[in-house]
Amino acid sequence: MKRHASCVIDNEAAAPITTNEELNAIIRDYKKAKFLAVDTEFIRERTYYPQLCLIQISDGVKAAAIDPLAKNLDLAPVWGLMRDQKITKVFHAGSQDMEIFLHLMGDLPRPIYDTQIAAMVCGLGDQVGYDKLVKSMLDQDIDKTSRFTDWSKRPLSNRQILYALDDVIYLAQLYPIMLEKLESEKRNHWLDEEYAKSNNPATYSVDPQLAWQKLKVRNMRPAALLRLMHLAAWREIEAQTRNIPRNRVIRDETLIDLSGSNPQDRNGFANIRNFPGGKDGKLVAPIQKILEKVASLPASSLPVHEKRGSSKRPPAAVMELLRVLLKHVTDKHEIAPRLIASADELEALATDDNAPIRALAGWRREIFGELALRLKRGEIALAVKNGKILLMQHDKKVG
Asked: For the domain bounded by 316-397, which CATH number is listed?
């Protein structure tokens, strides 16, 4: 056994688990845990779905690296552990890890705790990096020299394994600290909406019918946009089916060019920049079918642009005051502003006291929404004293 960062690492050489016997032994230990810190290493440059290359787990006592690329290793015990409702799985910025688990085990780990999400109500801002979080809460510096490792190559060095294990070793130390902090401040429920999103499988999968929304297009005419919507859906399905990156099927700019130029025959494809194989490419036939299908659709299928010009823009002064108030409240409570309201939600609040936004419901209304409404009604004012924002009512400080 080897001591490292207050945690025991199995095997003096920090070798990853590669046999079913080793895996079953460590899983038996982990089944007794109340929580498990979990991380993964993966690559996705050549695939649509991330290729899982390493799974790191720690219960705060033992840390182990599991090699999913090992021959004949059955990962079913790991999936069972991830599904165990009695054990909280702790991640940091776990969206890509969750995507991997959803793809490979057909389900999401539950229940989960994400320290990046929790950090938003711990005074560490929005989307805090793991190294910054560890430094801030544990006063430890993380070695990032192996950050750009090709995790698919074998064998992995001891240094690489220790680097990978550090993530779950420190994560297992962070979790109890952050949990106690939020529980003592009665803030756990402040993150319910964030965790609801994290626990929704739809968060980690792309609906082919909505794939066009990821493309950067401006001022495209309805007919061309309709073609783009269908072409993007086709490409997404192709990429998923063949498990290759979208741009390996066809590049974004080529897809947009196709939508605008709408080639009518094979010769038309010769003029499309970077079209794979030119007019004799194997993608000509399937794309022609899509374009023909779109051409046959009724005019009612054309997308309609939502016009926002008729809606009143909020007074600039009101917006500025609300922004200052939001900054004051979030600084005071040490939480990330986006947990309270987005820019669009602030605009809605500036024009409508009954806007259907998060800031006017639940705990958000308690700490910000009511103050915002009182500010709009002129019942309170913002003042500055010694460089700090104060909320005043009849020359008295109110918050």
From this structure: 1.10.150.80
Segments in the chain below pLDDT 70? 1-13, 305-311, 394-399
10 Å Cβ neighbour count for 2?
14
Does the domain made of 2-204 have the CATH classification 3.40.50.720? no
Residue in this structure with the two tokens 């005419």, named with its chain if needed: 221
Given this model, what pLDDT does residue 9 score?
Answer: 56
- The whole-number pLDDT of residue 146 equals 80
CA-to-CA distance for 247 and 252, rounded, in angstroms? 7
User: Does this chain's domain 2-204 share its CATH topology with 208-301?
Assistant: no
Question: How is the chain split into domains, by residue range?
Answer: 2-204, 208-301, 316-397
Torsion 103-105-107-109 (CA) sign: negative
Superfamily of chain region 208-301: HRDC domain (1.10.150.80)
In sequence order, which residues have a C-beta less than 8 Å from that of residue 215 and are 6 or more positions away? Answer: 228, 232, 252, 255, 256
Of 134, 167, 132, nearest to 42 by C-alpha is 167
